[in-house]
Amino acid sequence: AYVLLHSIPRVIDSSSTVPDLLSIFHEQEMTETVHETNGHGYLGTFVGKNGWLAILRVHSHGLVTVDLQCYEEDDFAQVDNLLNALESKLKVILNGNITRIKRLPALVRGAEVDRYWPTTDNRLVEYDMDQLVYEEDSAFQNIKILHSQQYGNALILDNDLNLAESDLAYTLAIMGSGRENYTGKEVLILGGGDGGILSEMVKQKPKMVTIVHIDQKVIDACKKYMRGTCGNILDNLKGDCYQILVEDCVPVLKKYVQEGKTFDYVINDLTAIPISMEPEEDSTWEFLRLILDLSIKVLHPSGKYLTQGNAENMTESLGLYEEQLGRLSCPVGFSKEVVCVPSYLEQWVFYSVWKK
């Protein structure tokens, strides 16, 4: 679907503008249907013998839009010729009174591989996804791995882009961007089933890293198709300095609290901060508060809690999270940094939290 947008800084008389445009559609043997607008400009649809559909909308306040829908295998030179002819004709008809002309790239609908994924602030981004590498529903979520020409394989859980093989910046940021020393330390990772954090962590020779991840199928998929992120670390659930527990982290954390077990670092890689306090988000906030409270309880007095936040643009969401930090069972301090994660196409905030 191609879109032409024309902005004209004055009121348009559609009765004089439209007839001059119709000849272009008629040359393409497209049949016109006029739709009632109750005096608000002109709306016409045009159907061609080749299956093309064009929608011409002339708004009385000065916006002219043309949408053209065609098939991927159609002659794109012919499509360009039609759009070029419409642009040229409008410039002549409107006598140069056009402030802006913008031709948007084609939106591809119904493709085998979905390439459109919205940002957190609801801007539509088109990726270069060209292959569905893996898809399966687990007991917990839908798991997809798509291939991107720029970002490598990308893990998508319940239609949310989690991590691509290009995103080492995410892994390093959630580990503290090189400011932390994990040598000889006890580390607890919540989530992290893609193996990225663990793969980087073991390079620093920690005493023991415990990963608690609920979904074996995520681990298995990443082990096979996200080697650029995890290397070979997921080939075994236990190693000299790590163990992967395929369990729900909440009862595990409660057990650690009861036993009095503590960690030098707790890294929460479970979920981003919810973007609002709407009812549908409330259960996520409850889960986040529970995890945060339990994590602080198993944190060594001199330890640190590290986590992702959300996009830098989501200022309300980040503010709500920082309010939660002030309501914990013990006072904490925190710092944050903003990092560019390649496949996210937006700046991402990461937090470091410590007991005062």
Keywords:
single chain, 356 residues, alpha+beta, Double Stranded RNA Binding Domain, Rossmann fold, 2 domains, eight-stranded mixed beta sheet, six-stranded antiparallel beta sheet, 9 helices, 20 strands, 28% helix, 36% strand, elongated
Please give a structural write-up.
By secondary structure, the chain is of the alpha+beta class. The protein has two domains: 2-107, 2-Layer Sandwich (Double Stranded RNA Binding Domain); 166-355, 3-Layer(aba) Sandwich (Rossmann fold). The chain is built from nine helices and 20 strands. The protein has helices at residues 14-27, 76-93, 168-174, 196-201, 216-225, 227-230, 249-259, 279-297, 315-325; strands at residues 2-7, 30-35, 42-48, 53-58, 63-69, 100-104, 116-118, 124-126, 129-137, 142-148, 152-157, 160-164, 186-191, 208-213, 238-239, 242-246, 263-269, 299-311, 332-341, 346-355. The strands form four sheets. An eight-stranded mixed β-sheet has the order 15-16-14-13-17-18-20-19, with helices on both faces. It has a six-stranded antiparallel β-sheet with strand order 2-3-4-5-1-6, with helices on one face. Strands 9-10-11-12 form a four-stranded antiparallel β-sheet, with helices on one face. Helix 1 runs antiparallel to helix 2 and helix 7 runs parallel beside helix 8 (279-297). It is elongated, with a radius of gyration of 27 Å. It starts with a strand and ends with a strand. The relative contact order is 0.10.
